[in-house]
Amino acid sequence: MISAGDLNKRIKIQGKSSDEPQYDDDGYLIEDLEPTTYSVRAKVKPVSAQEYHKAKADQTENITRFVIRYRKGLHVDDSMQVIYKGRVYEIESVINDNEANITLTIMGREVS
Fold first, then answer.
1. Which of 38, 54, 61, 107 has a CA positioned 20 to 30 A from the CA of residue 82?
2. What are the DSSP E strand ranges found in 21-102?
3. pTM of the model as a whole
4. Averaged pLDDT, 2-6
C-alpha cells in the first residue's frame, strides 16, 4: 500500500498528437483534436543501475518509474507520454501492481 505522502510529485499523462488529419465516421475532418491529458500525483523514482543491467539497457538512457494511484476510467497505455518538470518521457510499459487495482507503475524513457 502506498501512502499519500509518497505521491508528492505532479505529472501529466498525455496522448501523443498525430500529424495526420483525423476524420469522423462520416468522413468529415475533425478540427482542434486535443490529446487526452490526465494530471495526477505520482511517486517518481529513477531506475537503479542494477535494473539497467538486468534490462540490458543503454546506460545513457534515462528511464524513470512513475507510481500513481489506480483510478477507474483512467486509461494509460504505451502510446502516451508523461510530462514531468518540463521533460517528456515515452511510456514503455504500464503495470497494474499485483493486479490489485490500487497502484499503476509506469516505466518511461526520457525523450531528448
1. 54
2. 37-46, 63-69, 80-84, 87-96
3. 0.77
4. 84
